[in-house]
Amino acid sequence: MMMQLISTGSNNGTESIISLNTNTELKPAQFSGRIVLIDSENAEHYQDSAAALLSTKCVGFDLEYVPDYYASIHRQSFDRTRPAVIQIASNDICLVYLMYKIGHLPSSVSHILSDPDILKISHGAPSDMRLMYRHFGVRSRSFVDLQSVCEELQLRPCSLKSVVQRVLGLRLSKKQQCSNWEAAELSQQQIKYAATDAWVTLAAFLKLKPKSLRKLVVNELGDVQVDSGT
Predict the structure, then answer these.
(1) According to DSSP H, which parts of 55-124 are helical?
(2) How many structural domains compose the chain?
(3) CATH number at residue 81
């Protein structure tokens, strides 16, 4: 096993040592907590309890989409960017919302996304925030972009797979990324993949411990900007 240590620094004064594990036989990243699958049949049950279930003020956030080759040729381009699955994870639990079955954004999700006191960590946050506004009208607040955090720490490449290997010492599989996220029934592999993606985003952020944060917000025009109120 080969290990390489590098020091990463940034303009915000954060400095950390990241272990680069070059062993190709890394342990696979897999969320080991409780996964709650939420669809049209049980969405109402979690309306008031979602935030309490997560029981944290810092969560990982991710979206899944239907690849074009699974989408109907009659489907409009606007609908092709509509999130099929939304994942919100703490270290112990991941809520996986099957949006293609629910048909609307549950108020519990809207509350979490717009709550300034709940920090949402996303890899590619601006894109996720714009899509949530575009399709569901939610003005997200207190998002932190993991990709930008890694760039500021000069931790490149900044892909999630690379970050997970460097920071967590785990191997992140992306085999399910281009699977059919609007299948009648998602496979266990898809569900585990979805939960793991949201969780590793949070875990990597917590491991990096940046000293300063650029919290993002969606303004009244639907654009993403740094939240001047934080």
Answers:
(1) 77-80, 99-102, 107-114
(2) 1
(3) 3.30.420.10
